[in-house]
Design brief:
Rossmann fold, 6-stranded parallel beta sheet
């Protein structure tokens, strides 16, 4: 079969890009179509050996750096410029950029692996809080109205939706009136080394808004905890310097690290902090459990599908320093078996993902 892969765009390397990486490994001859890519970025570096076909906006000055967000109303023209009629199957990897409903032949099947319906369209927290400015709020309200109509129309053209969690499946049903197959994202790491447990808590996240980083830093300062944060600043998030200033020497910002170093950090942590209030799925808590390290997670979103309370972690109920502090204190008094964490994580393995995708195809 002739298969094409389509992804929002290639810039930061996050959970959606890890899914794309495995899809590209399953179908190594499939070209990757995308709105644009940013040369030298962490995502581009993962795929530069593949055949990448960007849209016409890729060649517009400053589009990949600054203009893709304010000019998001161009997405119908972006995806409309591609023709997939020569393919048997098109697999879209969709979240932010309304990546679905492509031009295709009458025998071409379209599968949409939906990481989430676009958060900015449906009132969910996004990584950039630009809507605090009234002029942006007005602009977003006008553009958002038409983009929601477009998003719904495009969703009806999809043959099969795959949701990355029950949480996202409910959103697909709510906003698109469509059923979906649930296939959890693949969790895969290098071999976990034996390292002594450290005295630090860990966060792996792009340095963006809506990830609970401020909450983690303030809690670490209040409880006098060691905290390590792995990840690079992304998008238009401007609070990184303020976060560093607030953190002082209590928090280590480690930037981007290799997967080998990542595994050591996971394995050596006391616990992993998963703080988003409505995470679509959340691969990092599962990676932590795969390394035998329990999780302290907000009680919501995809975390409810991966973390087993009092067996592989503890939950907290409110996004406040007090609530997170109580959960950490509860965690400190509890005992968790690394083997329980590992066996739970293995339910979300790369092998399970590959098997289910191949079966569906």
């Amino acid at each position: 079969m002739k298969i094409a892969l389509v992804h929002d765009y290639l810039n930061e390397y996050g959970g959606a890009e890890r899914v794309l990486k495995v899809l590209s490994d399953i179908y190594p001859d499939a070209p990757i179509y995308t709105a644009f890519y940013k040369p030298g970025s962490s995502a581009y570096n993962q795929f530069k050996g593949k055949k990448i076909i960007p849209s016409w906006v890729h060649y517009l000055p400053f589009f990949s750096s600054y203009l893709h967000s304010p000019l998001r109303f161009l997405t119908p023209l972006i995806w409309g410029s591609f023709n997939f009629s020569q393919y048997d199957i098109v697999i879209g990897s969709a979240s932010w950029y309304v990546t679905k409903g492509f031009n295709k032949g009458k025998n071409t099947k379209e599968i949409c692996y939906c990481h989430t319906p676009p958060r900015w369209l449906y009132g969910y927290k996004t990584s950039v809080g630009f809507q605090k400015y009234w002029i942006v709020k007005l602009y977003a309200a006008i553009v958002g109205h038409f983009m929601r109509l477009y998003d719904f129309t495009q969703a009806q053209k999809v043959d099969v939706f795959i949701a990355n969690s029950k949480n996202v499946a409910a959103r697909i049903q709510k906003f698109y009136r469509r059923d979906s197959v649930i296939i959890y994202p693949p969790v895969s790491l290098p071999e976990v080394p034996k390292v002594p447990k450290g005295d630090y808590y860990l966060i792996i996240s792009r340095i963006v808004g809506a990830k609970g980083l401020d909450l983690a830093v303030n809690t670490a300062l209040k409880l006098n905890l060691k905290l390590k944060i792995v990840g690079e600043p992304a998008g238009y998030y401007t609070e990184y310097q303020n976060l560093q200033k607030l953190a002082g020497n209590k928090v280590e910002f480690l930037g981007r690290v290799s997967d080998e170093e990542l595994v050591k950090l996971y394995a050596g942590a006391k616990a992993f902090l998963a703080l988003s209030t409505d995470e679509d799925f959340g691969i990092t808590p599962v990676e932590s459990m795969l390394c035998g390290t329990p999780v302290i997670a907000f009680r919501g979103g995809g975390y409810l599908e991966t973390v087993v309370e009092n067996k592989t972690g503890v939950f907290f109920d409110e996004s406040t320093v007090e609530s997170l502090s109580s959960a950490i204190k509860k965690f400190e008094k509890s005992k968790f078996k690394p083997s329980d964490c590992v066996s739970q994580a293995q339910k979300f393995s790369k092998e399970v993902f590959i098997s289910k995708i191949k079966k569906l195809i």
